[in-house]
Amino acid sequence: MAWLFLGIAIGAEIIATTALKYSQGFSKPGPTIIVVIGYVIAFYTLGQALKTIEVGIAYAIWAGLGTAIVALIGIALLGEAVSPMKIAGIVMVIAGVVALSLGSPH
């Protein structure tokens, strides 16, 4: 169940962060509401996941995958620039998350 909570936390954070871009500095009410609700859900479900999952692992997965996926959304949907360095950075973030996860006793 903790891993499900972590997955929900990641999804909520991705949605909230993407909505943050559309909120234009919290000047648009619709995206702003999505930001607030998304982050409340993200932190609540991350807290639930931390009841069972080690904090270092959970946070690495939450932050790392969230960062990588939001970067990909920026490239794919928001017209942000893509470069070999940016792709390498995304790959390294994911590799770091995997390394932390594999290095933790289960």
Note the main sheet: none
Beta strand %: under 5%
pLDDT average, as an integer? 94
DSSP E strands, number = 0
Distance between the termini: 15 Å
What form results from the Cα inertia axes? flat
Q: Give the low-confidence spans.
A: none
Question: What does the oligomeric state look like here?
Answer: single chain
User: Which structural category fits the helices and strands?
Assistant: mainly alpha
Computed Rg:
15 Å
Q: What percent of the residues sit in helical stretches (DSSP H or I)?
A: over 70%
Instruction: Please work out how many helical segments DSSP would assign.
Output: 4
Order of helices and strands: HHHH
Task: Tell me what the structure shows.
This protein has 106 residues and is an all-alpha fold. Helices cover 79% and strands 0% of the residues. The protein contains four helices and no strands. The chain has helices at 2-22, 29-49, 55-77, 84-102. The longest helix is centred in the middle third of the chain and has 23 residues, at 55-77. It starts with a helix and ends with a helix. The mean pLDDT is 94.
